[in-house]
Write a structure and sequence with these properties.
- It is a single chain.
- The two termini are 35 Å apart.
- By secondary structure, the protein is an alpha+beta fold.
- The protein has a 5-stranded mixed β-sheet.
- The chain is built from 3 helices and 9 strands, in the order ααβββββββββα.
- The protein is 33% helix and 31% strand.
- The structure holds dinuclear copper ion.
- Dinuclear copper ion binds next to loops.
């Protein structure tokens, strides 16, 4: 969803740049003494409009990106530590339908935490770094078994850094005793 929005905004931006170029190229090709597309005052107005539009679009699209972390009553937290060569994380089970905040760091060298669904599709990724806690929020739509893989080469056992995260249906956990 967010990726599609970024794509649309990028394409619109490219169009805004391309159209004046095409118009200018056309006007210079057809006449010996080209008439300016805009007079001075409308050019100034256009500049202001574009600058304001640029600020608004930048703020609006970067506000929730790359990783917005919202803590609420229904928020679940999973603490993840990457080691050579395993993932240590707690809890091992989360609930579908409500946001999960992953607090990710590394015990030794840099790792990359990538979470995949059952179709081996990458859902999100975040760097696991020594000395830092990187947070990423994700809401799992469907229950099931998800896989955590390392996405940064971290030594000879890099490919063995795999772990399973279980996502349970939303109603199951709500009715469970506290
Ligand atoms: Cu950890 Cu690659």
């Amino acid at each position: 969803m967010q990726q599609q929005m970024i794509l649309v905004v990028t394409l619109l931006g490219m169009l805004c740049v391309a159209i004046p170029f095409i118009l200018i190229a056309r006007s210079t090709a057809s006449s010996v003494s080209p008439t300016p597309l805009f007079d001075d005052s409308s050019r100034r107005k256009l500049l202001w409009v574009l600058m304001i539009l640029g600020v608004v679009v930048t703020v609006a699209t970067l506000w929730v990106w790359p990783h917005r972390v919202v803590a609420g009553a229904s928020t679940q937290a999973v603490n993840v530590t990457g080691h050579q060569w395993s993932w240590e994380f707690e809890p091992k089970t989360v609930t579908a339908g409500s946001p999960v905040i992953f607090n990710v760091h590394a015990g030794d060298v840099n790792h990359g935490m990538g979470v995949y669904n059952a179709d081996k599709r990458l859902l999100f990724q975040v760097q696991a770094m020594p000395g830092y806690v990187n947070r990423v929020e994700y809401t799992f739509d469907k229950p099931g078994t998800y896989q955590i893989l390392c996405m940064e080469f971290c030594g000879i056992g890099h490919h063995t850094m795999m772990a399973d995260l279980t996502v349970t249906p939303a109603d199951q956990n709500e009715s469970a005793p506290q």
